[in-house]
Structure formats: structure tokens, C-alpha cells
Amino acid sequence: MLFRSLSLIMNVDTVIQVLNATRDSNDAKRNEAEKALKEMTTAPHFFPILLLILANPDLSRSIKLSAAIALKNRLRNRYNDTDSNLISEEDRAIIRQNLIPTICGLSDQSVLNLVGVAVEEVAGVDFPDKWPEAVSQIEAAMTNPAQFYNSVFVIKSILRSFQYRSAKAPVHAVNQHFYPVILQWVQNAMSAPMNDSTLNTLELILKMYYTGLDLTSENVSFIDINGLPTWVELCKVVLEMAPISQDNFNPDIPSSELNQLPEWHCKKWAMSILLDRKSVV
What we know:
By secondary structure, the protein is mostly helical. The protein has helices at 12-21, 27-40, 46-55, 61-75, 89-104, 109-126, 133-142, 148-161, 169-190, 196-212, 222-225, 228-239, 255-258, 262-276. The longest helix has 22 residues, at 169-190. Helix 8 packs antiparallel against helix 9 (169-190).
């Protein structure tokens, strides 16, 4: 059960009321709510309660969006401040235990995109040493077809936290662990008729791979650690993919709108991988 031991110092209903008030049309009420939310940020269990709100299927989309915005904005630059104890060790442990299961259970794309920043913040500080359970939690989510997209999103967020760092060992470990499963999904998806849902997942996978590419580490084979032969061939297949949407054959639809089709987003990221890394193709 999530968050069994949350203190009564902060009431979930009170947080929900304040989040609701941050969207009030009355400026005075909205400003008062923002001030209250700022004060709550330093209180024990504030961030676990935001996760609890996000995990509740009975709460409205608007509340979850407000909770996701609060989590994104207020966790940033606080989680990495371990000296000031802005977030207690107890709350950090609760966040690590529940962040990935909560994210993988989300169904709203806008909410999902917002909470990705939380994964980046936590991973940048705690992964993998203090957050080893992240791998098993992602594995569990990937076995559920309904959560596969979100689990890839989590992987991309973890990789993003290391994208511009010199220490790439965690990136190599994540890539080697999850790439086989992801490539199997790609193979299965591309062997059957594709729809917008599978194309959106394929686009995310290509973005994930681009984020995790490492061509800077020394004393390693960049071909091996990036699985380049397999991924380069995949990118070529994506680029050669025949038009899927019937909109491609509609002369009344301008090219600017066709560029927004999921299949063209896939081609864009495949091309980005090949062109940006053209020296290895």
C-alpha cells in the first residue's frame, strides 16, 4: 500500500484544496494559495502526498495537472540539495519507492510529461546506488502492455539525467539491461500493421536511444556500448517505412500538417540519430 506511514502533519485534502485554489480566477485567492503551497513545500511529506494525489485514479485531471506542476517546479533544485535537508531522508525513501510505479500508472500524457522532471532530479542524485529498485520497478511495468510506453519514458528520463555528464557507467548499465527487451518490442511492432499508438511508442524509443548515446567515454567501444549496428539498421528501416496514414495521400492537407503525423516524427528522430552521429554510420 502506498505511503502507509504518512504523518498527519499535512492532510491530503488540504493539499488538494490548495492545489485547486492555485487555479482560481480570483487573483487574491490564487496568490494566497501560491503562498500556502510555498509554505507546504518545506513541510514533512509534501512530496509523497503529491505522488499520492497523482496515483489516485478517482481524482480529476485538473488536480493531477496541478500536482504534477507542483512536483516538477518544487522538486527541482531541492532534491539535489542534500546539505540543507530540504527533503528528509524518510521522504526521499518514500519518493524512490513510489515515483516509478506512480508514473507508470499515469494515463494522461500531459501529466506524464511534467513528472518526467522528477525522475531526472531523483536519478541525478540517487541512481543507481541509492535507487537500485528503479530497475526492477521498470521491469515490472514493462511486462504490462498498458504501461510499456510509460516505462520507456522513465528510462529516457533516467538517461537524460546523465546526458551531459562525463560519468556514463549508469547509462551503459541501463542500455545493456533494457535494450534487448525494447528491441524485441520494436521487432514485434514493425512486423504488424502500425497505428498511431505504436508509432508514438516507436518515436519515444528513438528519442530514448538518442538521449542515451555515448560517444565520449574512453576505454570503451562506442560501437558495442551503443549497440550501433542494430540501431543504425533500425533507423534505416524507419526512414524507408512506407506512408501509413491515409492523410499522406490527401492533396488538401498541407505538408506542414503532414509533418505532425506520428510516422514523420519517427522519421525525424531516426534521421537525427544518423545525421548527428554521421561519423559512425
